[in-house]
Design a protein that fits this description.
Elements lengths: L2 H14 L11 E4 L3 E7 L11 H34 L2 E8 L2 E4 L13 H12 L6 H15 L1 H20 L5
Parallel strand pairs: 2-3
Antiparallel strand pairs: 1-2, 3-4
């Protein structure tokens, strides 16, 4: 997906999402080949100053659950429109109290060929109960790498967007 196509998805969602869902911040929209993930920022409930961190976490969980239930019919309607328009599944979540709560996820199968040393890493994670299966172990490894090389990945994504932009500005040799 090109940078312009990503911008078009974000623009469409900005126009389509209800204003009250974006009152505190614009949505966070992430797009890959299979999925559009929309995260909405919602405010934490007001609690007394002496509330514990556990109380705040529970209040946030309750607020997120209420938002999920209250917005479900509209989210389904918007997701169906977006899925038809952009040929990708739509997932939803909220950002609240410094945490992200996802309502839905797409679990896309990824085919890969691993040699024995890589399989042994995955099997060690399974044997140590870090993961339930090789698939979970691989997902764990990908999340770990993503967290530890986030700035590099961000730079790489920026470079890819720049290449897309330059290609679009270049001569049409078609």
């Amino acid at each position: 997906m090109t940078h312009d196509e990503r911008d078009a998805v974000r623009a469409w969602l900005t126009g389509r999402l209800p204003e009250e869902w974006m009152s505190s911040a614009p949505p966070t929209v992430e797009i890959d080949r299979e999925e559009i993930t929309i995260r909405l920022a919602i405010a934490s409930p007001s609690l007394p100053d002496d509330a514990t961190d556990a109380d705040r976490a529970e209040a946030d969980a309750g607020r997120a659950a209420a938002f999920r239930e209250d917005t479900k019919p509209r989210r389904i309607e918007i997701a169906r429109e977006a899925e038809h328009r952009f040929d990708r599944k739509v997932s939803w979540g909220v950002d609240i109290g410094g945490r992200t709560v996802m309502f839905t996820h797409l679990a896309a199968p990824v085919m890969t060929r691993l040699r024995q040393p890589e399989r042994q890493v995955l099997d060690t994670l399974v044997a140590a109960n870090v993961a339930r299966s090789r698939a979970d172990a691989l997902a764990w490894c990908v999340r770990l790498v993503g967290r530890n090389v986030d700035p590099w990945l961000a730079d790489l994504r920026t470079a890819m967007r720049d290449v897309d932009r330059l290609r679009a500005e270049g001569p049409d040799v078609g």
